[in-house]
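In this supplementary section we document a worked example of the pipeline. Step one takes a protein sequence of length 288 as its only input; no multiple sequence alignment statistics are reported here. Step two produces a three-dimensional model, which step three serialises into structure tokens for compact storage. The input and output of this example are shown verbatim.
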Amino acid sequence: MKLLDMTNRLNRSSFPLRYWRLCRIVLLFLAGLLVTLLLCPFCGETARLRLKASWAAALLDALGVEVDADLSHVVPGALLVANHISWIDIYVINAALPAAFVSKAEVRDWPLIGWLAARHGTIFLRRGSRGHASIINAEIAAVLTRGQHVVVFPEGTTSDGRSLLHFHAALLQPALAAGRPVLPVALSYWEPDGRRSLAPRYDGTISLGQCTRAILGRRRLIARLATMPVCIGESRKQVAAEARAAIALAAGLPLAGNPLGTAGDPPGGSPSDARPTDSRNPALANAA
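The serialised model returned by step three reads:
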């Protein structure tokens, strides 16, 4: 226990370092706004994706997060199916595999954030509307057919990063209907000493500010992104089950139940609150 406490203290960031990081983050958001206004309208799709990846990498660096990515199974135009732990998941993925994200339609009306999200290729989904869902499915299929990636978080909520929740198979339908590959992407966060880190968790009652302070409070964190072989199946439920199993294997996670109180919740752990991620996460592109 004493050794663990000492290790935790060694990886705590100092106040001057946290202050410097906050200054960098503010400057990065201002620079991102200017680039979106003045540069992106004149860039081609490839250049915009490179800018997105560069900005995401710069933000993670400012937060003290190092990305360790295994992209050995990446194929063009894939639906990226990832587990969801934190608001920084979006930037970890974008730094390695710049992509469009699916978000609830309400985000489009948020001041500034909605405008930025729209400018950076976010696909907005109006929940509960079958007619709109078919339109969105066609939009997702079009992006995938152009050889670009689209990301969904099929758990539908964030976890603390120690288990993998139930996958909502309907989110995989656009890729299957268009004949596009479904690529599992496993995310996990680690301390420099090899222990799994809970600092980035953004679940339950943890606020955005509390989550960000916890991340800034660590001297260094490692975000691991691992792609797994493309999932193939006859139905979306089968593909969702395969993707979930692949992510659990790659991230070393047990499978947990969702929603609240199901038998699959891990022993001694906090069950999922079944709340959609994008109801809490004000980042630019949440998964619906």
